[in-house]
Amino acid sequence: MNAIFKRRSCRNFKDMEVKMEDIKEMLYAAMQAPSAMRQIPWDFVVVEKTEIPTLINCSHGAQSLKECNKVVIFVMRNDLKCPEFLQQDMSCAIDNFMLEGASRGIATIWIGTYPHNERIDFLKKYLKIDDPYIPFAMVGVGYPKDDKLFKFDDTRFDDKRIHIGKW
Ligand SMILES: Cc1cc2nc3c(=O)[nH]c(=O)nc-3n(C[C@H](O)[C@H](O)[C@H](O)COP(=O)(O)O)c2cc1C
């Protein structure tokens, strides 16, 4: 089944390494994403498991990273051509990354960072970076504890959300 239909957020992971080759392929997919005027605002920091006890202090939602094997911090550059579209560009790259993971049996969890200033500042300090580089989101990766995590959820399709020709 297409990875789009089986990707699910994961918060419980096996104690199993995700190989750098797989992360690289997922980042290869991330970098195929569209961006406004091809401004390509992204950089990525791959963080090892030993650092996770620090990263979970970024926000309440970051607790979900506890069991994952690696974390990728998506960093956005904000001095480019189309600043108004940066968030959309970054989100496209993250989705591609997660979908490539799902197609390889690697589960992910998106941890919202931008636009919360305290989370951005936490990660700026952690990475020792400054403007124009802005931490946008973290994505935890790992192999899911639940072998049935990747499954189609047929309750999600809603015909009423489709408007043909007029609202
Ligand atoms: C912008 C964004 C921020 C999110 N932040 C968090 C978070 O901080 N912690 C977390 O556990 N999940 C987070 N999620 C995951 C959502 O809770 C999850 O995608 C949603 O419940 C739908 O479930 P699914 O991903 O399995 O389809 C985030 C998702 C998005 C798109």
Descriptive overview:
The protein has 5 helices and 4 strands, in the order H-H-E-H-E-H-E-H-E. It is α+β, with helices and mostly antiparallel strands and 167 residues long. The protein has one domain: NADH Oxidase (3-Layer(aba) Sandwich), CATH 3.40.109.10. It binds flavin mononucleotide. Flavin mononucleotide (FMN) binds at residues 8-9, 11, 61, 64, 109-112.
Report the count of strand segments.
4
Task: Please write the string of helix (H) and strand (E) elements.
Answer: HHEHEHEHE
Counting H and I runs of at least 4 residues, what is the number of helices?
5
Question: Which hetero ligands occur in this complex?
Answer: flavin mononucleotide
Largest sheet: 4 strands, antiparallel
CATH C-level category? Alpha Beta
Concise overview:
The protein has a single domain (3-143), classed as NADH Oxidase (3-Layer(aba) Sandwich), CATH 3.40.109. It has 5 helices and 4 strands, in the order ααβαβαβαβ. The protein has helices spanning 3-6, 20-30, 52-55, 86-103, 117-127; strands at residues 42-48, 70-77, 107-112, 133-142.
Spell out the key features of this protein.
167 residues, alpha+beta, NADH Oxidase, four-stranded antiparallel beta sheet, 5 helices, 4 strands, 19% strand, globular, binds flavin mononucleotide
